[in-house]
């Protein structure tokens, strides 16, 4: 069973959500760091002060250093000091006493400066690493991003928008095949026909595609049953007219009472036979179980069954002879005696009806082995005129007869082979017909051994 839709949900909803929130969290951190860094122009300005202080420190120019400090403090309202590596003041500069305990927490120029800190000390080392310019970051140089808005946007608004877009698209991804199925079901209800659904879904291979395939099978089955039942009703009504017309003629005739009764009984018997066969065909058509259910399976001694059917057929058709060519040990383990009786009796009777007088009907049977399975093949070969090749498949259709006058004369309605084929399929087998080059028709019944 395919679970593609389930995997899509797992992949996109669960794993996708985790990946999305991880990316957004990483993005939030990255943007927060970028937005809390000192602006490049301010970094350049502070770096310029450090380079000037480095020259004064290298030349031990105390006056120059004092002038630079005064310039920075006057311009930016802050303080500046030159500190050696052991945090001692140099060149006459001095850090305010309240900052002495914090001098070891200097931040580099390119590090983020968070808004939660009231005051930030920036340390810019000289090229020779002999000392550093330490400055309390001026308020005008502090980055002032709206991190709350950024955080809300990345952790609430953007995920919500992405999930809404995904839900919208996924909704229509699910709804499209459902709408197609709904429209097809409405067509099937109103018009008794519907276009196949599966081709309309393209390359989808998920559970909804499986549902579409099942729906198409159901739709095809329903349409086939409707057509079959309508055809059966139409053919049956046509066939009923003939015996009913004959019965009316008998009732309107001036025949003796005994002759009328005998003729009426004969026509009623034909009607009962026609109705029984038609009901059997209708039941086999509507049966949803393509194979014989286990509770109806039984062991069948096929050799004995063939003997009984052949004996009865020879008695009824005394001018024909049946040649039996099958072993006495033909046994089917999971079959059905009633179904096999209908299959073989209808085929043998049909062969005798189409065989000229004083001819033979050959009934043969043998086991057939292959690499994959074991089966039984029963062949019934008559010596009649055969069937035109283009009509070999049509002879299994209900009420189809090559010679209608002859079939009516023999009490046939063209349902025997239809019943035989449907019962054979129900047993898991196959019934086919082929012409014999020397003359005649061979019916081949292939049945599984178990």
CATH topology of the domain at 294-448: Heat Shock Protein 90
Largest sheet: 5 strands, mixed
Low-confidence stretches: 405-409
- Give the name of the CATH superfamily of the domain at 294-448: Histidine kinase-like ATPase, C-terminal domain
Compressed to H and E, one letter per element, the order equals HHHEEEEHHHEHEEHEEHHEE
* Percent range for β-strand residues: 5-15%
The CATH class of the domain at 294-448 turns out to be Alpha Beta
**Cα distance spanning the termini:** 27 Å
The count of helical stretches stands at 10
Corresponding CATH architecture of the domain at 294-448 = 2-Layer Sandwich
What strand line-up does the widest sheet have?
A: 6-8-9-11-10
Can you describe what's shown?
The protein has 450 residues and is of the alpha+beta class. Helix content is 52%, strand content 14%. It has helices spanning 4-35, 40-59, 62-76, 147-190, 207-252, 257-286, 302-316, 337-353, 404-409, 416-426; strands at 80-84, 89-90, 121-125, 131-136, 298-301, 321-325, 331-335, 360-369, 374-381, 430-435, 441-448. The strands form 3 sheets. A 5-stranded mixed beta sheet has the order 6-8-9-11-10. The chain has a 4-stranded antiparallel beta sheet with strand order 2-1-4-3. A hairpin with a 4-residue loop joins strand 1 and strand 2 (89-90). The protein is rod-shaped, with a radius of gyration of 49 Å. The two termini are 27 Å apart.
